[in-house]
Specification:
- This protein has 292 residues and is of the alpha/beta class.
- It contains four helices and 17 strands.
- It is elongated, with a radius of gyration of 27 Å.
Amino acid sequence: MIFPDEYKHVGVTKSFCPDIEEPIYFLTYYLIAEAEDPQTGGSEYAVYYVKKNGEGLLRKVEALETIASAEEVVKYDRELNIKDRALLIEIAEKLCTGTVNTVIFTGVDRHVTFVHKPDLSDILELEILDVAPPYPSWLSLVVRRLEASGIFGDLQVRFTEKVIDLRRFEGKNTVFPCSASGLEGKCLDSDVLTENGHLLVGCEISKTLFEMRFPELEYSFVNICPFKSEIVVPSKSFITRCCRSENSGLVKISGFDGAVVHWGASEYQVAEAIRKLVNSLRRSSENINSQP
């Protein structure tokens, strides 16, 4: 797949046979040519890779290598946020049928780019691993809001959700950590327990607090900490949260690489954690692919 990054400018010309005697801007690596199709009267396109040399802002063109032309190229008919690389790959993959292998896109700022031989496997899928209520879960809400803002556009990433519904444990003998959850049962921060046989649904800190408050009571325990839980378990690379700040950062759980943020993390910290994780996963993938 060819998909120009932000440092490789895409130029546009109105001739299928560009004049290579003309100097070209030093950041221009690709050239899109548009000309009238004599048979249909519409436009047809060609996409070239530019070989150049020299120094300075304008450089001499040595040669143009054809990437795709004529019936191999289509132009998408809507303006998009061309910084959302995953979106462009997904659209291009759907349009590349028959002889078509290249799709040209125009941004809302009128800049252009293209995707040649789109490959959905280049889109990295991350799992949002969280618990609920509230609904949507806090981490899902934050990640989806960040995603909608376009902050992950250059990462070629998409998110799925694995949210564990704690309502399955609701009951008169169940103890949850905090009354703010709205779950039906008892809560460590508001109830006094006097009988054995309760089910505590929480993390290691909840367990410690329970035993400090009610040292004489016997109880059972469901751990929802992603580091030790049997139910909050990732199924792929993931972003999750933990109430212990020292656990924040890049981690590996159940054999999957992921990022952990504190329960009180800001949106900036969540975005930063995801970016660090994606960069780490990309580097690992490049290292594996470069091995003989």
